[in-house]
Structures are given as structure tokens and as C-alpha cells.
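Notebook entry, structure prediction.
Reason for the run: the old model in the group folder had no record of what sequence produced it. Starting over properly, with the input documented here first.
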Amino acid sequence: MSFSFNMKHFLITFCVIFILAACGQTQSVDIPVKAPGKPSPNEQVADFSEGCFWHAEIVFQSLLGVRDAVSGYAGGVDKHPDYEKVCTGLTGHAETVQVYYDPSKISYATLVAAYFASVDPTEINRQGNDEGTQYRGIIFYRNDQEKKIIDDYMAQLTASHKYAQKIVTEVVPFTNFYQAESYHQEYIKNNPNNPYVQNVSIPDYLEFRKIFKGPYKS
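New structure, fully documented this time:
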């Protein structure tokens, strides 16, 4: 079992004690979920890795024009990844969300901006308490235009001196995406009282909402 896997479970155990000490109070937040209905005729797909995919899923599903963000694995060599194997760090995969969006309502550039507003791009092989190569930051591009949008935005961030450390987000061509187990899909909505959700995922999401201007679903 990897250090990161143990770290998340340690944090969950710690948070249980913390929540009990706080008389069981939990945060009530309107969690964005997959939009109903069929894909639009011109729907496009984008893939982002930014630590725990539970967090990434609600970040992108909160945006107007995004129909769904599916949790899964990408960037590795194992052709049959699952959560237990990915958590070892040996498959090469990162926890990833595959974002289905309508470009007439939200641009790829806006998705890239949302990504950087919801992640610390200077952390190597981790995000917050989640540590390991499966939590590294990656943006997968499908064509030269997308790569240019990513590179230009990263150059703007670097020039702005927003971060004291170097941006280490990987920018790589898309190859394969493997959908995660069903229990990972809409995890935060289905497990609102999970200690990790209450003390990590939801606070991170609320912080993203403070930083990023949207557009958000009503």
C-alpha cells in the first residue's frame, strides 16, 4: 500500500475524531453533479489531473457548459488500472477527470484557467496531503491549438510571479483514459458526510469558488 493511500486513510481517521469532537456538525454545500440530458452535437472532451479526482469532478461540473466530469485514470502504462493498483504508484497513472463540455458555452481556455485556479501547480507528485505520482498535475492536450492555449496560460502565470516556485504541471498529449470504479463517480454528492470530503474536498471547492469567477451553473 502506498504512502499516499495510507496518508488519505490516516487523514480520514483523524477527521472522524475531529468531527466527533465538534458534535458531528458538517458543512452543507450544494454539490454540482452531472447535468441531465444528452450530449450536444458539438460536445468536446478535455482531460485534467489535479490530485484527488473527487475534488476535480465537482470543480469542473460546477461550470456552465460542462455536462459531466468523469473520474478515472490516465497517463500510465497499465492497460487495466484500478484504484488499488493506481494507489501503489506503480502503474504510472494519475487520478484524472475527463470533462465533457459544449464549446459554444465554455471555451477550452476557460477550462484551463479553472484548472489552475483549483490546483497548486508548483507541487510535484502531490496535492496537499495526497502524495504520490498518482496525484501529480497533468493537462492532456489533443491538438496543437490546445497545447498553445495551455503553454500561453502557463507563460502568463510565470510572468505574473504569482507563485514563488516554478510551475511543474505536466503538459502531455492525450493517449488513453480509463474510467474509475462506479463508487468514485459523483463521490462527494453521494458521500457528503465522509470526513475527507467534509474537511478537504469541500473546503478546497469553496476556496476555488472564491478565486475563480466562473461562469457557473445557476
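Summary: Residues 1-5, 12-25 have pLDDT under 50 and may be disordered.
The old model has been moved to the deprecated folder.
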